[in-house]
Specification:
By secondary structure, the protein is of the alpha/beta class. It has two domains: about 40 residues; about 90 residues, Double Stranded RNA Binding Domain (2-Layer Sandwich). The protein is about 45% helix and about 25% strand. It is built from seven helices and seven strands. The strands form two sheets. It has a four-stranded mixed beta sheet. Strand 4 and strand 5 form a beta hairpin. The radius of gyration is 20 Å and the shape is elongated. The model has no long low-confidence stretch (mean pLDDT about 95).
Length: about 150
């Protein structure tokens, strides 16, 4: 038995406001169960702040590392080895804008075909960092996730 409060989805519907207040007050998730053929599926109700600022930040380490390369033609290449993404721009700001757009497009593609990505050996570990990325409401918040490493 879980140490967390558990309830079935029918009970949750009747007490949603109270459950949300409890999650906010205690900072602990509440587990809700949905009956399905052969048993039940479980889901966690957790505050966005706890998930975004505590749990995901703890789990995400160097996945947002950006390697910076100054090219011979004076352009800038940014590479994110973890995701296998690389872009080139006239300067660091232009390259960063392109990188952010590529990251957002990749996150959307991942979300649309998540089952295939989760089965892919080189892509399955992208889920948690992409969840962290999905909480960003602005490009500036995405920039705060990026960790630049200047390679010359």
């Amino acid at each position: 038995m879980s140490m967390l409060k558990e309830m079935y989805s029918t009970e949750l519907r009747d007490h949603l406001g109270e459950v949300l207040d409890e999650v906010e007050k205690t900072k602990f998730p509440v587990i809700t169960k949905k009956k399905v053929a052969g048993g039940s599926k479980e889901y966690a109700i957790i505050s966005r702040a706890i998930l975004q600022h505590k749990i995901l930040r703890y789990l995400v380490k160097d996945e947002f590392l950006v390697e910076v390369y100054k090219e011979q033609d004076n352009t800038v290449t940014l590479s994110m080895p973890f995701f296998g993404i690389a872009v080139n721009g006239e300067n660091i700001n232009e390259a960063t804008k392109e990188l952010i757009e590529d990251l957002k497009m990749y996150a959307e593609d991942y979300k649309k075909d998540i089952d295939a990505y989760l089965k892919s050996p080189n892509r399955k570990d992208h889920l948690i960092p992409l969840l962290q990325l999905s909480f960003c409401d602005t490009d500036e918040e995405i920039i705060k996730l990026l960790k630049y490493n200047n390679n010359g």
